[in-house]
Amino acid sequence: MNRLVQTLPRTRSDVVLTIRNPGSKSLVVALLGLLALMSEPVRTAVAQREAVGTIPVIPVGKENDVKFYAVDGSVTKGRTALELMPKSDLVLWLAGNQFFAMDEVISAFQRKRAGISVGLITLPPGLLLQAIKAGGWTYDGKEYPGGPDIYASVNLGHLKELKKSNLMSSFMVYMHNELQIMVAKGNPKKVLGIKDLVRVDVRTSMPNPVNEGIMQFYARKVLERHGIWQQIAAGKECVSCDTTATNWFTAVHHRETPERIKANVSDAGIVWKTEVLEALRAGADIDAVELPEQDSLRNEVSYVIGALNNSGHRQASEAFLGFLRSLEGQGAYAKFGFVKASGDELVLKPIE
Q1: Distance between CA 75 and CA 67 in Å, rounded?
Q2: CATH number assigned to the domain covering 179-296
Q3: Most CB atoms within 10 A, among 126, 212, 251, 327?
Q4: Is-contact 206 253, C-beta < 8 A?
């Protein structure tokens, strides 16, 4: 037994190795060889986890936002997908409001590049960013270390944070969207614009300002310009919480707001236009209130994407970015209401 390695618990996700017989050179060599075999993304994830500490939790009930696309075309979700993700040929962590387009997008990509399995997580981009910095996720009480090959957000600010940590160097804009107000079918509360969201008879379901990019970078400044941000937030910046008697901040708005309107616990909420279209395709009893340009921000909203510098699948990452620049890639997103990017926008540029 004196030649065995003992593992002494240090934290939930960390161990200390001690050797009872320091003269066992063969064992030391074997351990060094084992460490050398660790993939770059896993080593980076462990280092990041040490530096940051708390690993973010995948929200309860969001299993459909975690998927694994096998090379045979089969798709798994939730825990099984998380466990398969380290075996993926490509890992994508993308802003969650494109979740409904991803089966089509990944299918089209795999038709062009057969033999590439894809791991996918579609959650709020701020939450994805936290997981990149922490080096992984916690799901149902278990930790899953790792990181993406490619990350996408709805604002360049998130990518600039990765640039500061030397985790990403270049990006491109790959599509556009705009803000709308989702309401119940027939708009029974007669919501006509932004200021109606603070009427005493209108219950709102709004993206949270902590990690949902739609609120962090877009909706909040519209609400502030109209002078109603504090009436909605009441000084609170939280997730899955009531801020007033009539407002709820979501964890994942693109899943929750349609459900809350359907359940008649909310009357209206700011969402992306594409989310309205998806809810209608799914048969939801909802309608949309279109907003003027200064409130919809249709000329401002840009989705940005880039490969992580520590990607362990560089060729597959480049292949996916190339696919997004193609007619097939742009067309796959356009089917779901996203606005195509221009040729100039689809050129990779350095993150300044």
Answers
A1: 7
A2: 3.40.190.10
A3: 212
A4: yes
